[in-house]
Design goal:
By secondary structure, the protein is mainly alpha-helical. It folds into two domains: 105-242, no CATH class; 247-414, no CATH class. Helices cover 64% and strands 6% of the residues. The chain contains 13 helices and three strands. It has a three-stranded antiparallel sheet with strand order 1-2-3. β2 (210-222) and β3 form a beta hairpin. Mean pLDDT is 81; it is low at 91-98 and 416-425.
């Protein structure tokens, strides 16, 4: 028992001794671990704070860069808008210059079209879209400038347009434009003088895609759609040219007339007029003309016109309705329309009324079916004018010859060779 107590006591002492040491070591260990944990946490927090600060710095930097880029984009957009304004209003491309050559209505139509999708493609589009927009703008500029030039010329021709019974004005539209057969063309050309004459339509490719706009003028009015058909400026110019006075052909015909007079002056009392040669020269002039209506309707030489001389010749007054192949039924309707008191449909001796003569002459001058006959008659007409000029000069030469040689006239009379007219001696 004593031994056991000793052992127990010793164990207790040892336990007490070692327990304190161990507890102290354990506490130091725990304290050290706690410090390390706290340090690690502090470092982690510090790292997180540093990372957050870095992120905030980067974000702030990105925001600044984005703002800078946005400012740059706005500056570039503003520059593009200024460039667009310059392109559309400069002297080189005066598509939108309010210089008086465009009415307010036409100006507004063009302005809205140019500053719509086309401007948006230029200002906000890619470099390729911007280049395409600029090409499209140049195309539209050329079209508008052509329309300005045409509109001014058409207005001048319209103001000076010739009217029946009025002194002829070579600076105006031909008298042909007053013919009822060309009422449609007259209405169109007159409409091109209006304030809202411009007409814009989509330019569509073969795939049916809209690739731009086409600028033109109002064409025929379509009653079904209640809209005007599109007429390109080239078509408008062609229509206008068709009704202009043919100054070029007039100059050539007058020159040829003077040539015929000179030829007569170089001849003698026995000279004869070379019809074939004169006709070929006249035919060459007529065939080269792109204004044949003017050659028929307008005063070309000595205040005379083909239509006026044809109407005044009395040729149509000798034509009867029967000769035109009209049936009695048709004749009856004509007589009723003319207001005859006792229409009978008997037309054998009925001469054409003055109004019907004009109508028939108009058909002759405008019908495509009569083109060959009409142009042949025009050539004959001007050839005869050349002959008349030659004849007047030849008559002067003959008169001088007969005055100097009285016996020659008697001899020629005896031989039944009569001069073309009676001469005073």
């Amino acid at each position: 028992m004593a031994a056991d107590q000793t052992l127990v006591q010793g164990a207790r002492e040892a336990s007490a001794y070692y327990g304190g040491v161990v507890d102290k070591a354990r506490n130091e260990l725990f304290d050290n671990l706690n410090n390390q944990v706290q340090n690690a946490a502090a470092k982690k927090q510090a790292a997180a704070a540093e990372q957050q600060a870095e992120q905030e710095k980067l974000q702030k930097q990105a925001t600044s860069e984005a703002e800078a880029l946005e400012q740059q984009a706005l500056a570039e957009k503003k520059a593009l808008e200024e460039q667009w304004e310059k392109e559309t209003t400069s002297e080189a491309n005066d598509i939108l210059v309010a210089d008086g050559s465009l009415s307010g209505e036409n100006y507004g139509t063009v302005h809205d079209n140019v500053n719509g999708k086309l401007k948006n493609d230029y200002v906000n589009g890619s470099p390729k879209e911007r280049a395409l927009a600029m090409n499209e703008l140049q195309k539209r500029t050329q079209e508008v400038n052509s329309m300005k030039d045409y509109s001014q010329e058409n207005a001048a021709l319209w103001v000076n347009a010739n009217q029946a019974g009025q002194p002829f004005n070579p600076d105006g539209y031909s008298l042909a434009l007053q013919d009822e057969a060309f009422a449609n063309e007259k209405k169109m050309l007159g409409g091109h003088c209006s304030k809202n004459s411009f007409n814009i339509k989509d330019d569509v490719n073969e795939a049916g895609e809209v690739v731009g706009s086409r600028y033109g003028l109002r064409g025929n009015y379509n009653e079904e759609t209640d809209e005007y058909e599109f007429m390109g400026v080239d078509e408008a110019i062609t229509t206008s040219d068709k009704f202009r006075f043919d100054q070029s052909s007039q100059a050539e015909l007058l020159a040829l007339q003077n040539t015929m007079v000179d030829i007569a002056d170089e001849g003698d009392h026995t000279s004869t007029f070379d019809v074939a040669s004169a006709r070929n020269k006249v035919k060459s002039i007529i065939n080269a003309s792109d204004k044949k209506l003017s050659l028929m309707y307008d005063e070309m030489i000595e205040g005379r016109s083909f239509k006026g001389d044809l109407m005044g010749s009395g040729m149509l007054s000798e034509v009867t309705y029967e000769q035109l192949g009209l049936s009695p039924e048709q004749a009856l309707e004509i007589e009723k329309a003319a207001g005859e008191e006792n229409p009978d449909g008997i037309i054998g001796s009925d001469a054409l009324t003055a109004e019907d003569q004009k109508l028939i002459l108009s058909k002759f001058l405008t019908s495509n079916d009569m083109k060959e006959e009409r142009e042949d008659m025009v050539v004959t007409y001007y050839t005869d004018i050349m002959r008349q000029g030659w004849q007047r000069k030849n008559d002067e030469i003959k008169q001088k010859y007969y005055n100097a040689n009285p016996g020659a006239k008697v001899a020629e009379t005896g031989n039944q060779t009569q001069p073309n007219q009676t001469y005073n001696t």
